[in-house]
Structures are given as structure tokens and as C-alpha cells.
Amino acid sequence: MSDYGSLASRVRRKSLLDKVRSAEDCIEFFKPGMDLGWSGFTPAGYPKAVPIALADYVEKNNLQGKMKFNLFIGASVGAETENRWAELDMIDRRWPYQTGKNIAKGINEGRIRMGDKHLSLFAQDLGYGFYTPKIDIAIIEVSAVNADGSLVPTTSCGVIGEILMIADKIILEVNTGQPSFEGMHDCLIPRNPPHREPLLICKADDRIGSSAFPCDPDKIIAVVESKYRDKGRAFAEMDDTSEAIAGHIMQFFADEVKAGRLPENLLPLQSGVGSIANAVVGGLAKGPFSNLNVFTEVLQDTMLDLFDSGKLRFASSCSLSLSETPGFPRFFDNWDKYADKIVLRPLSISNAPEPIRRLGCIAMNTPVEFDIYAHANSTLVGGTRMINGIGGSGDFLRNAYLSIMHTPSVRPSKTDPTGITCVVPKAPHIDHTEHDLDVLVTEQGLADLRGLAPKDRAQKLINVCAHPDYRPILQDYFDRACKETLSKGVGHEPQLFDRCFKMQQNLAVNGTMKVKNWDIEVNLCE
Amino acid sequence: MSDYGSLASRVRRKSLLDKVRSAEDCIEFFKPGMDLGWSGFTPAGYPKAVPIALADYVEKNNLQGKMKFNLFIGASVGAETENRWAELDMIDRRWPYQTGKNIAKGINEGRIRMGDKHLSLFAQDLGYGFYTPKIDIAIIEVSAVNADGSLVPTTSCGVIGEILMIADKIILEVNTGQPSFEGMHDCLIPRNPPHREPLLICKADDRIGSSAFPCDPDKIIAVVESKYRDKGRAFAEMDDTSEAIAGHIMQFFADEVKAGRLPENLLPLQSGVGSIANAVVGGLAKGPFSNLNVFTEVLQDTMLDLFDSGKLRFASSCSLSLSETPGFPRFFDNWDKYADKIVLRPLSISNAPEPIRRLGCIAMNTPVEFDIYAHANSTLVGGTRMINGIGGSGDFLRNAYLSIMHTPSVRPSKTDPTGITCVVPKAPHIDHTEHDLDVLVTEQGLADLRGLAPKDRAQKLINVCAHPDYRPILQDYFDRACKETLSKGVGHEPQLFDRCFKMQQNLAVNGTMKVKNWDIEVNLCE
């Protein structure tokens, strides 16, 4: 392992060196029921040594279910921490986004009480004391501590500022296993209303904060050296479906530029995670647009490709969420090429409506499904089972210049390769409403919904986005719904409430959403 | 009628006096299918003379259905204009909010294609050319035209700026039937991204624009004198239910001040329209809080009472939407008392996330209904029938410091005085999601949902907000939904999709939402 500097060189407030202890020696600070705040965002910049030591302690002493904590973190963190904690039944409340099979299991079986909020609102509400009046212990991964006690983050800023606002005690994990990220951050602890300041970002690379978060050193109870790396996600594979979706979006951008509604270098891009997002970034790397800017919440490996293509001018994000390998080694080996083109900001800036709307971001995210009127489900499969959370999708989609969602038109069920349609009569759970979305895309095509009334949207989505297997089924439903409601004068947005979820029920019983017959003979009323 | 100054004294760009003509003489400018943009917002500041002349012309010449236009207006306008136009089948597309029985009929029978968008997004998207590349004719009511051609609005600013950005031709209605509102406005035409400027409002009374909207005089094709008054709404009556809701909210505010989460003069208030909003304003007029500020989109008569109480320091709004009588006469008779404590701003400022979030507004709005997980329906009765539109409720609720919705717990059906519950298992249409709302209130009580996971929210809403007649019914549904989904590991937010709308269906068939039995024996799948 390379030498990235000693602990002493990273801890510049020398009195704190008296507080250095091992992760195991921190266990004594933790009592069941405590409210904990961690640094970290979409497995980047989260504490590892202390959470792992606590998990080891619980496992070794068979304390499963007896050491439960409430976890407030900017977003998901590495599986070796929160997911392992869930496996060991160490989590009661968890806000506001998570990743991992065990934690999802705990949430959907009712053991873990997860709350799901737009990330920008989570950040401010945490600082306001809306979730808990105080954080008992904060665990913050840092690159360094300055002589004035201020904290230099690592690969994300998350909600460090808000945690510091309400934390009683603080444990620092100083990560000497990787370079210091000093200089890459734009740190700001917002003041609460009525004293909140404008966020004067007018370009993706404008900075409004400082290189570190102010912190009261008296609150720091321990300094732990850590050499763990972020367990970043591997690449999502691209496939023909993703490539087709990316192609539609590239064509749309070209058309918008031609129509004079987008500048030639587009507008700052926000792109979610996953194979479609990767295909879009890949399309941009090969495409005709240059001098691009990114204003987003997560930077993944593909963004390095976009930098290498010479098309990307600057990227603003909440986290640098590269893969453990090959992403981070590639980044560290080419530090000078990337570092001054990236700024990492706290969630309260990266996801704030103010800069997103002012800059006029182009937001692109993948839902579970959307319905014919353009309501989208981003969080609950089947309408009840939590996957990860809404994350920042609503922050960007609500405030973007163009709000785009993209998904394959179908997914396979257990028995039918096109058994699940992602275009449904009515979304069983709604995270983004018809009032928020401009453009919906599947590999079948791109539907520009701007300016369309609900029934015109429905017809366009059936024609353009639905898979051919489902077009006649959806058309039949839509025609019946129109017929039944318009004649009664209640048909602004026609639905049939006795069968709008028949596709979902058909899937449960017959393994496919291909409803054969929309007729129904049911008296639900007794 | 008082003398409020001659047309010549209001039209200070003298070359425009050559363009003075009667409303009837403007009819020749209009061709079927044109895109029209009007000033106006929640019946205030809208053009009257020309729209009424056009309606008279259509009626007299039996041109119903042969002179249809697309109408883009900040929000609803007076019934004598848009509702009469709907009656005469003169409207094809209508964005983004409307009021009136005939226009609602046209929308819900499928003749009028209404689009419904968050008002702040409507404003910017109109300016971007997303709905139409150009407005064929703008009709703007003004107090005056300055020598430089700039336009001084009357009782609202609406989307005048965005209309001027894309208008080909402009007709001005100079209203000499009331005082000039010059000096009350904060006019700004926003630049499009990537050149958009910060909106540097840090207090409700900060101003960032000028007293008039710049306008190219060459586009003005006619100047029409008008003496019509706004047909503002009458008072909504207060009742015991509204008073009880207001009482819960006053107590909540007092508790939040005590807990240190609100300053003693609260934070800038946004309050919707209707009897509950009036009761809340009435409660504030009698209550313990002083030096209040209002940052909202509509000011109604009750706001004059709040000024008179001495409790209200300043009010920022998009419109001054007083009643034709007694509201406006009272305002005009006491001009000096109110005028310098009010600023009227364009929708692109009044409803922008940037100032709403920075100031930390307290948003209060009335939905049609909400469900046990805190999703709210604001627009479609029964899930399909449009009432008015989402208006600015989402702009404020998404960005507020505290997001509050209030409704009676029940409404009467035709056969049962408590036949309709406003707390349902699943909202049949969703405009505001669980991710957006902090506090829900009925006359039964106030549920503070901050920090609660979905199942905890559901139990609290059933216990606190539901009407006693519906508590056991909702509890039974919730218990069954939990039982069925948690055992399968899919129960983050339990629902039963074969019966989640049984209350609505029961209402249609039996005239009440009091479901007797949640059992169901249906095979929906064939």
C-alpha cells in the first residue's frame, strides 16, 4: 500500500492526538437506542472501522437485537456496515436511503423503521431537529483535521454539516489508507431560517463554501485511524435496451438544440445510477456535444470515461462514488487529470432546488415503472416492497429544466421474458407525479409530454413507450376508462378503480401482466 | 364612480394613444386556434373587456365551437371570462388552473384539454416555449404604460413576464375604473438558463425587480380602456370544523416555538384559500404571535383583518385577490394603511423554490383527501374528476420549513352526513407524496408525522385524524394489509390492491364510504 501520510500529518490540531484510540476501544461509548449520524453518501466517505468493530462486538457476544441504533446518514453506505448491521439486527430507525439485501429484508418484514424523504429535505430537516433533537454520537470519516478543528471530508460531503449542528459527541475516522481529498470540497453549514443565505452558484464550478466543515473540538471524543477503502459499486453492464434508450435521448438533445431550446453544450446534467445512466454517459462520450457540465449527486466510474473523452468540462457532485477497483486506483493514478475538475458538496447544496433550477439541470432517472398518465414509482416494487428509497430523484426532477425518466418497457417475470410491463394503467405507488415529468423514454421510443393534457399523454405513452405486447392491452384499458368516465362527466384522467391494478394481480396469480380480458364481474360492496 | 385618472394620464407613451380602440374593434385580430396569453391570477388582474366582447360576438353570431382558443394564464380568472368562454365552447387547451362550473364540465367531459402543472414550473416552461413556441396574442390588464413602454400591472403579476417573452402581438387593457397599483409590484422577467440570476430575497419585503415589466411597444396592436373590476370571491364562511382545525394549528405553533423550532414571530406564512385558511388567519389575528410575515400566492379579504389586528408586518403575494365587495372598496378606502405593506410579484418569484426554502415558509393547504401513509389528493375528486388544479400547493409544500395540510375528517354524502371520509386507505389520485408532508390536521386532531416511518404514520393518522366512525374501518384495513404483506416480506408500506379502493366503490354503490367488511372473494385474473 502506498504511503499517504501519517496520522500525525493529517491531524493538525495536536491536542486531538491525545484522543487517538482503536476502533474497538470506541465500543464503550455506544448504548442501545442511541441516535447516530454518519458521514457518507452512496457508498462513499462513510465510517468503516468503528461500525465494523461494533458489528464484530455484537456478533461475538451474541447481542443481536440487544444493541439497536437509529441511523441518520446522507444516503446508503457500504454493505460491510449498514447491511451487516441489519443482518445483526442492530438498526431500529433508518433515514433516508439504503442499499443491501439484509437491510431491505428488515425494512420489508417490519423490523427496521425506514423513513424515505427527498434527500435535500432530509438534510435540512435533520439540521432543524425534526428527526431527533440531537445526535448522540456522530461518526465522521475525514481526510484531515485542521489546526482550527475543522474537518476535511473524504469522498463525500453528505449531511456532515447538519450532523455537526446537532451532535453531542463526535468520533473521527481519519482515513490514511488513501490520499487526502483536501481542496475538492465546497463545505458549508447552512444557517436555519429566517437566517438562511442564498446559495450563489451560477455555474457548476462556482464555489460558495470552504475546504472544511467547522467543528467544535471539545465534542470530539475519539480519533480513530482507518485504512479501509470505500466498497464502491462495480459497473452496471450496458445492454441493447440501455443503448437504445440512450440513442433516443441523444436524438432528443440534438433536436432540442436545433429548436433553440438547449444550448450547444446542453445544460448541466444530472444522471442517476445503473445501466441506462451508464449508456447515456457513454452516448455523451461519443456524441456531438462538448464543453459539458455535470451537476449531480453521484459520480461513478463512467464519468471518468466522459472526462477522458474531452467532452466534460466540470462535474459537481455530493459524492465521488467510484468502484473500489478499478475506479479509485484509476482516479488516484491520474489525480491531476481529474481533481481540479470536480467539486464535492454537501447534500444541502448538491440537491438544493435553488441551484438546480437556476442552472437549469437536465435530470435523468430510472423508475420501477410509470403509468399512462406519467406518474412514476421509484421506490416500492409491487407498490409495497421498498428497494432503496427516493434518493435525490425528486430534488432533480421537480426542479430541472428538463425532467426525464427512462426504463426498459418490459422486464422478465419468472415465467415470461416480457411478463412485467413498466408502462401500467396506474402506478401502485407514486413518488413523482404527472406534474413533475416532461419526457419518458423506453427502448421503444421517447415520449415528449410537455404541454400535453392527461388523455393525450396516455395515448402518446401507449403508442410510443409501451412494449408491443402490451400496447393493445393498455389501449383496451384506456378506451374503456375513457368511455366509462367521460359519459359521466368525470373523465379528466380516466381510471377504473375496480381493475386498475389487475395487471399486478394477474402477475401474482398467473406470472405475467398480460391481462387477457378487462371485464370484471365483482360486487365489492356489501 | 370615482375618477381614477384619464386614459391619457395612464398611457405615458404617447404614440400608443394612436392605437386606442374599443374592445369590439379588437375582435378582428382573433382567429380560431390561436394561442392566447392573459394576465391574471386567481381572479385578479385579468383582462375583461376584450374577452367579454369576444364572448358576446361568438354568442351573437352562433359561433360556438367555431372560435376555439388555447388559453395560457397564470391561474384562474373571473367566471365572466374563462367560464363563459367554456360555456360557449371557445376553449381547446387550458393551462394550468381554472375555476368555474362550465369549464370544469368541459374538462371532465373531454372537450377542454387542461394541463395541470406546479405553477412555478408552468411559468418557467411557458417562457421556455415548452407549451407553444409563441403566443399569438397576449391580452394584459395594466394600471399604466410608462414612457419607455414598460407595463405597470394591476392586482396580480401572474405570468405577464413569460407571456411577453414569447408574444407576437399584445393588446393592453388599461383599467381606469380603479386606482393605479403602481409601486406595489416587484416585476422581473427571468433570463433562461444558463443565464438565470439568483432571486436575492432574504426577507418577505425584499424587492429584486422594478415597478413595471419591460415591453416592446411595436408589439402592441391595441390599447383598450376598461373600467371592469375583478370579480373576486366572496368570503368562505367559517364553521366549527374550521375553527377546531385552526385551534390545533395555533397550539402546534405555540409548541414549536416553545421547543425552539420556530421563532416567536413564526416564519413567513403561506395559506391557501377556503374556510379553513380563513379560520387559521382568524386564529392568528386573535393569537399570541406578532410581527408576522406572509409569503404566499394569494391575498384574500381575511388578510386585511390580519393587518388590522396589528399582528401582520408584511405580505408578499402574486395577487391581491379581494372580493369585489366588500374587499376592494375597503382596500381603496384605506389605501395608505395597506399599500406599503404589500408587494405583488410574478409567479416565477412568488412560487419559486428558492425564496420559499430560504425564507423557511410555513405552508398550509387543503386537499380533497389524504391516505394513511400521507399521500394527498388535491385535484381529482374520486380520482378522475378535475376540480381546479394543483395550483401552487406543491411549490410551497415541497419547499416549506413546515408542510401542513388540513381538511375536515369527513364530508357529507347524499345519504350520510359522514358518508365521505377524507382519510382513506389509498388516495385514488396523488398530487403530494409521503415525501413532502410534515403535518396533517383534521378537526379530530393534528398528526405530526416528522420522522415517522410509513406504518407509524398510518397508525398515528388513524388514531389522531380519522373521524371516529371510520377509525375501526381503517384500522381493520391497516391490520389486514400489515398481516398479508409483512409475512411475505413485502410490507414497507402495506396495501391490499384488490380492495384498497373499496371505500370509493362502496360510496358509488351504497352512498357511503363505511365499508362493512374488508373480505373479498374475487378472482380478477383470467
Automatic annotation (TrEMBL), chains A, B:
EC number: 3.1.2.1
Main location: cytoplasm
Compartments it resides in: Cytoplasm
Domain Acetyl-CoA hydrolase/transferase C-terminal: 327-477
Stored SUPFAM superfamilies: NagB/RpiA/CoA transferase-like (SSF100950)
InterPro entries per UniProt: AcetylCoA_hyd_C, AcetylCoA_hyd_C_sf, ActCoA_hydro, ActCoA_hydro_N, NagB/RpiA_transferase-like
GO annotation terms (biological process): acetate metabolic process
A GO cellular component annotation in the UniProt record: cytoplasm
Pfam families assigned to the protein according to its UniProt record, in alphabetical order: AcetylCoA_hyd_C, AcetylCoA_hydro
Molecular function as annotated in GO: acetate CoA-transferase activity; acetyl-CoA hydrolase activity
Keywords assigned by UniProt, alphabetized: Cytoplasm, Hydrolase
Domain of life: Bacteria
Reactions the enzyme catalyzes: acetyl-CoA + H2O = acetate + CoA + H(+)
PANTHER family tied to this protein: ACETYL-COA HYDROLASE (PTHR43609:SF1)
Family as reported in the entry's similarity comment: Belongs to the acetyl-CoA hydrolase/transferase family.
Protein name: Acetyl-CoA hydrolase
Origin species: Desulfuromonas thiophila
